[in-house]
Amino acid sequence: MFIKLYDENPNQKELDKIVATLQNGGLIIYPTDTVYAVGCDAMNVKAVEKICKMKGINPLKSNLSIICYDFSDISEYARVDTATFKMMKKNLPGPFTFILNTTSSLPKIYKNRKTVGIRIPDNNIIREIVRSLGNPMMTTSIKDDDEVLEYTTDPELINEKYQDLVDIIIDGGYGGLEGSTIVDCTENAFEIIRQGKGELIL
């Protein structure tokens, strides 16, 4: 299914369709404030495993990331001290992935590494989906280093390439090419592991 949504005002009827698909363990491709990404209900382990298989991710070795709607969600799924919270407040919503220690609220698949990447993208489409779902979304970009760039930025071409692998592809306009900046917050000092889009404000 190919659905067109607008960042300013996503259509609620279409959002309901997307949420029902996610609740049934479906996979979706959607825009963020960086690159297009593939995701599922973060609490649905079978769906998370499907994405890991599709992207060749080993959850034992890789950090999995989730998208939260707002800060009240973050504290449920990750441990955040005061200094980290203040720093994140300055940067979110925005193009950052913050690596934090997990809490017991996430399924076991996230606990292999005891850490989780947290995102609150500055994109209304995906945030409204997460809000309507009532759960965070597991997320990973569809961009691979050796890919033809148009296949990760143009929704029509993304649809052509991935329509048989996922249940819904959302056309939210052209996507970017630069991934999020990844910041490790598990130690006392914040460490930028990958500089992507966005300048971190400390």
DSSP strand tally? 11
CATH topology: DHBP synthase
CATH superfamily: DHBP synthase
CATH class designation: Alpha Beta
Description:
- The protein is α/β, with parallel strands linked by helices and 202 residues long.
- It has helices at residues 12-23, 45-55, 71-77, 82-91, 124-133, 150-153, 155-162; strands at 2-4, 28-30, 37-41, 65-67, 78-79, 96-102, 115-119, 137-141, 168-171, 181-184, 191-194.
- The protein is built from 7 helices and 11 strands.
- Strands 1, 2, 3, 4, 5, 6, 7, 8, 9, 10 and 11 form an 11-stranded mixed beta sheet that branches.
- The chain is globular, with a radius of gyration of 16 Å.
- The relative contact order is 0.24.
Write the layout of secondary structure elements.
Elements: E1 2-4, H1 12-23, E2 28-30, E3 37-41, H2 45-55, E4 65-67, H3 71-77, E5 78-79, H4 82-91, E6 96-102, E7 115-119, H5 124-133, E8 137-141, H6 150-153, H7 155-162, E9 168-171, E10 181-184, E11 191-194
Parallel strand pairs: 1-9, 2-9, 4-7, 6-10
Antiparallel strand pairs: 2-3, 3-8, 4-8, 5-6, 6-7, 10-11
Helix pairs in contact: 1-5
Task: Kindly summarize this structure in a few lines.
With 202 residues, this protein is of the alpha/beta class. 31% of the residues lie in helices and 22% in strands.
Quickly list its features.
alpha/beta, single chain, globular
